[in-house]
Amino acid sequence: MASSSNDSTALISEFLLICFPNYQSWQHWLSLPLSLLFLLAMGANTTLLLIIWLEASLHEPMYYLLSLLSLLDIVLCLTVIPKVLAIFWFDLRPISFSACFLQMFIMNSFLTMESCTFMVMAYDCYVAICHPLQYPSIITGQFFVIRAAIFITARNVLLTMPIPILSSQLRYRVRIIKNCICSNMSVSKLSCDDITLNQLYQFVIGWTLLGSDLILIVLSYSFILKVVLRNKAEGAVAKALSTCGSHFILILFSAQCCWFWSSLTCIVYGVRTKEIKQGIQKLLRRL
Fold this sequence. Notes:
The chain crosses the membrane at residues 34-56, 62-89, 101-123, 143-166, 204-228, 248-271. The chain is mainly alpha-helical.
């Protein structure tokens, strides 16, 4: 009896991911659209990266930021979807502690990095529309993008890193995660320890990072709208829409469905941008 009691309270070393527990008989069917959308997202982002890298006319801050967004999307896709497909196709539900907390770290840090990238892109639009004469001196080409990338990475990695660290310090005796991913709340609530600190930190950091990005994005577009409405010059509205319209669509889609829509809306951004379409045509002619 003592041995049985010890076994029932033994700490575990891996989790089991249970995707859609009420629809497990549909898993193979669910894998079909997920596979197609995964290929679409990966193909679109890879194509954008290739075009921006090959086409010299696209070596501008806006397109470098779009490249960064595509890289973030690719990493997020590779972090989540292959494991979900492995569950759907081969019933490979176990995930080790290290893999689970690594996935948690990547999702938290990269999703907030995407949000921060949107904010920097909004700032780029703001300077282009509201201070066009100062644009070359403020948005200084690759140097601006390098500084922006360092800021985006450092801010979000450093502030989100404690989330998986705090979760990894907890003791776990329940191994079944009723989710397809190792999100902080899905995992930490399985612990037999107090998770108040985990919940509080994620709440504060989530609202601080995503909330501040959203506020700055709204402010940027408010100033842009104010300038456009004040400027009666012919073509002012068309210029603003051409410069920032696709980016605004990108943000609206991404706000709805996190990283997945971000991947798809990179396609929207690329298709609506004349330079990207020209780059695609040149790439096809080379092939």
